[in-house]
Amino acid sequence: MRSVDLLIEKINVLQLWESSLTLQRGEFLKVKGSVDTRLYFVESGCLRVFLMPEEEELTIRFAYQNNLFVALDSFISEAPSDLYIQAIKKTKLRVMSKSAFTRLLNSEADAAHWWRDILEVLVFQQFERETDLLISSPAERYRRVLARSPQLFQEVPHKYIASYLRMTPETLSRLKKS
Amino acid sequence: MRSVDLLIEKINVLQLWESSLTLQRGEFLKVKGSVDTRLYFVESGCLRVFLMPEEEELTIRFAYQNNLFVALDSFISEAPSDLYIQAIKKTKLRVMSKSAFTRLLNSEADAAHWWRDILEVLVFQQFERETDLLISSPAERYRRVLARSPQLFQEVPHKYIASYLRMTPETLSRLKKS
Fold it and tell me: What are the two backbone dihedrals, phi and then psi, of residue A70, each rounded to the nearest 5 degrees?
């Protein structure tokens, strides 16, 4: 079992989820300028995370069913962040405050250990993403992400995959066919 | 005191460094295709981390004096990685194996706690770096990195800063003057 699944199971057993939340398709969980330090579990649905430093929406992450997720930078810094988080289909979330999560990590050594594993995986994934962004060939970026994240191509609309891969929807269509 | 300094102090007090290593300027600590799972402390000097997926060297990180560092992806995955790590001046390192480091984390709760803090900071920094890479304006990239990492501009040669910022040395010179 993956550390993330063990941690989810522990939170379920201890009944630490504090509330739940349903977002309709297109609805925002967070917008630029807000703080969000909560931990979420995606019961169903899918979300995308994007930035808009200039005029274009830059999709940088997705959150899938049966996974934990947080507003990365704001969860860690506890400060306002530039992230937008939007449901791309109807999405049900379980919610836990950071203070409750911190209490869990400080009282349960196995939970703290799993969280450390999860952070290491996250560091590794972010490193892979950085490498993707530095590769100028669209075909090579597509090949790397397809090998790493087949789920992306099953669950996420074409236009958001193209945005994540930093290419036009037309280039992505061409690569999918080839 | 920062968690990283507390962790370094603890490793020093427990005398867990297993060896030391001196690299001459230009010498490589790691090249593409190799595994490196060791933890390092930079006693003096400076290193740069780069990728070369196509023909160009892409500088992605620096390791400064009095800091810990690892070959990020390989340390976590324990698999061969694409990273090159090179001393950009004469550099002295203390070295610890991953197995000794893991024993420390599993036996000392405070060390495990500091490592969790360090991983969270790393996740946050990587997120900032990803945002940098997505910003198309060289002036804005320069402004963000200058605000975040003044040390970079004191310790690292101009050409490597330009590579890190994804701009030509000429553009960087122009931005420094403006």
Answer: -140, 160
Tens-digit pLDDT profile for residues B95-150: 999 999 999 999 999 999 999 999 999 999 999 999 999 988 999 999 999 999 98
In a domain, A132, yes or no: no
Instruction: Give domain status of residue A97, yes or no.
Output: yes
CATH classification at residue B7: 2.60.120.10
Residue A120, domain member (yes or no)? no
Q: What does the pLDDT read at residue A119?
A: 96
Question: Between B21 and A53, whose confidence is greater?
Answer: B21
Question: pLDDT class for A178, splitting at 50, 70, 90?
Answer: confident
Query: Exposure pattern of B67-85 as b/e (b: 16+ CB <10 Å)?
Result: ebbbbbbbbbbeeebebbb
Torsion sign across C-alpha atoms B130, A173, A176, A43: positive
Which residues on B lie below 8 Å from A54 (Cβ)?
135-137
Distance from CA of B10 to the nearest CA of A (A): 19
**Domain span at B27:** 3-107
pLDDT band at A169 (very low <50, low <70, confident <90, very high): very high
Contact B120, B77 (CB under 8 A): no
CA B74 to chain centre: 13
Count of structural domains within chain A: 1
Of B87, B91, B92, the C-alpha closest to B48 is B87
Strands (E), chain A: 19-23, 28-30, 39-44, 46-51, 58-64, 68-69, 84-87, 91-96
Interface of B with A (CB under 8 A): 51, 53-54, 58, 60, 72-73, 76-77, 82, 105, 109, 112-113, 115-116, 119-124, 126-131, 133-137, 140
> Which residue intervals of chain B are DSSP H helices?
3-13, 72-77, 98-107, 109-134, 138-148, 150-155, 158-164, 169-177
SS3 A34: strand
Residue A45 in contact with residue A91, Cβ under 8 Å? yes
Three-state secondary structure readout of B85-126:
EEECCCEEEEEECHHHHHHHHHHCHHHHHHHHHHHHHHHHHH
Q: Which pLDDT belongs to residue A151?
A: 86
